[in-house]
Amino acid sequence: MRLPVSIRRHSTWVVLLLLNSCACNPDAIESSETSPKPLLEPLPQDSQVQAYFNHSEASVYTEPYRLQTRLGDDLEQIIVDTIESASSTVDVAVQELRLPKIAAALVKQHRRGVRVRVIIENTYSRPWSEVSAAEIAKFTERELGHYNEFLQLADLNGDGELQRDEINQRDALVMLANANVPLIDDTADGSKGSGLMHHKFLVADGKTVIVASANFTTSGIHGDFCCDESRGNANNLLVLESSKLADIFTREFEIMWGDGPGGKTDSLFGINKPIRGPEQMSVGGGTIAVQFAPLSETQPWQNSVNGAIAQTLEKANKTVDLALFVFSSQDLVNTLESAQTRGVGLRGLIDPSFAYRSYSEGLDMMGIAMGNNCKYEVGNNPWKQPLSTVGVPNLPEGDRLHHKFGLIDNQIVITGSHNWTEAANTTNDETMLIVRNPTVAAHFQREFERLYGNATLGIPPWILERVEAEKAKCDGAIATPFQPTGKPVNLNTASQEELETLPGVGPVLAERIIEAREKQPFVSLEDVDRVSGIGPKTLEKWRDRVIW
């Protein structure tokens, strides 16, 4: 066993933690005895839209921290190379940045005179080396795991103690601060932070863009120190060579950056950002549409990122394959059910930590409802024709399926940082790309097949046992609440329950609306004024919430 790790601060030793919170063997971090060889031939890349995967079976690299030679694309090195190739500007917006090589590359460029700017999520804006023993004592198991990861990353000489020079070489945020690299988080607008600053993008020299599903951490890219077999959360990364795309991402960055560190609180995050729709352009051998979240729930749902995803899914003719960290958007799973009814073949993989939760739309697709405190999720809709092609991937211990991609007809890829949830859609700063390019799609198809070929599909027996236990606890009566989904209410087709979600509408007024439209459908918002009990003030409240 390794010794407790200590950090010397101001000549005082503070014992922080025994490294015992990881389920895996902390000593198993040596390089592999035998180096693997690629299992597959590399696929062709589009010169302007290159796709990479940290679990790729077509490449091999030596991971720089545990010194393991393993299958996969070295996503960190791709990021470092892009940073170091810049001659004028580097802008980074990423939820979490903990990798020393990336920090060192940013510091190097900053000192060379390249304009470097970094935005991170406020939850991850504090260096691990500044955390006190009292704070550590209150950590959750998840926080403790992340902290342990840093300790093993930073203890360069393996003596069980962290010296200041080790911190200066391995605590990425300290490295940036020591070099005065400009950095803000999502409290720069004067708030306590947005929902999540969840972007994972980089722009270099106004011409190269990196968009990833991965955070810049050991767990996100390479693998966990505690688990020798860990290869990092399954993630993808796109390198995009396009000045037009770079301009779009720079505009998003500038909105969040505002005046930067020490400036006015004019940074904009979350729903305070201006409303912008998708922007599409030709790039390489296809097209790319870019859209950023969030969009307020008061705006038409079809204009949101999830709305754009739904519109893309509606175009599927043959197949839809999904590899998703979390899937909890009822509107999107309902869109997929419509695709199923018209004969589209569907396959889906969801990370095991989310796949079987009560709000998981994977359960809908498998035709099962999971109650929670005697209630089903809002709008719960188990499919009448359940799928046996939905399940969870079997990954190395400690790793997660962190992708957020959908593949339509093996031609169109939906990817980015955006999870398929309403929180991502209406709260978080997110990136979503729709890439129409068969060359790029082939890479995502290969990744999906890799995951699907080693997946557990269908409903596991323990889930059925849990469902029955929940029913028994609730005496068989589990309520299905109704509330707005975020989509606008169609006054000519909405049910009474849907109409009652509008401001000022109760059961009686909802019945009047239904009676009026049966006599004559509504043709405008003002036309609804003919219903007794509805006046101009009510209609003004509905203006962004209804269609007809």
Spatial shape: globular
Whole-number average pLDDT? 89
Number of helices: 18
Which spans have pLDDT < 50 for at least 5 consecutive residues? Answer: 1-32
Structural class: alpha/beta
Strand content: 15-25%
Task: Outline the biggest β-sheet.
Answer: 9 strands, mixed
End-to-end CA span? 68 Å
Helix content: 25-40%
Strands in their spatial order, largest beta sheet:
13-14-20-19-18-15-16-17-21
Number of strands: 23
Radius of gyration: 25 Å
Question: Could you give the topology of this structure?
Answer:
Elements: E1 5-9, E2 12-17, E3 49-53, E4 60-62, E5 69-71, H1 75-85, E6 89-94, H2 100-112, E7 115-120, H3 133-137, H4 141-154, E8 161-162, H5 164-170, H6 172-178, E9 183-185, E10 200-204, E11 208-212, H7 218-221, E12 236-241, H8 243-257, E13 279-283, E14 286-293, H9 305-313, E15 319-324, H10 330-341, E16 345-350, H11 352-355, H12 361-365, E17 390-393, E18 404-408, E19 412-416, H13 422-426, E20 430-436, H14 438-452, E21 455-457, H15 461-473, E22 489-490, H16 496-499, H17 507-519, H18 536-542, E23 546-547
Parallel strand pairs: 1-8, 6-7, 7-9, 15-16, 16-17, 22-23
Antiparallel strand pairs: 1-2, 3-12, 4-5, 6-10, 10-11, 11-12, 13-14, 14-20, 15-18, 17-21, 18-19, 19-20
Helix pairs in contact: 1-2, 2-6, 5-6, 9-10
Can you characterise this structure?
With 548 residues, this protein is α/β, with parallel strands linked by helices. It is built from 18 helices and 23 strands. The strands form 5 sheets. It has a 9-stranded mixed beta sheet with strand order 13-14-20-19-18-15-16-17-21, sandwiched between helices. Helix 1 runs parallel beside helix 2 (100-112), helix 2 (100-112) runs parallel beside helix 6 and helix 5 packs across helix 6 (172-178). The radius of gyration is 25 Å and the shape is globular. The relative contact order is 0.11.
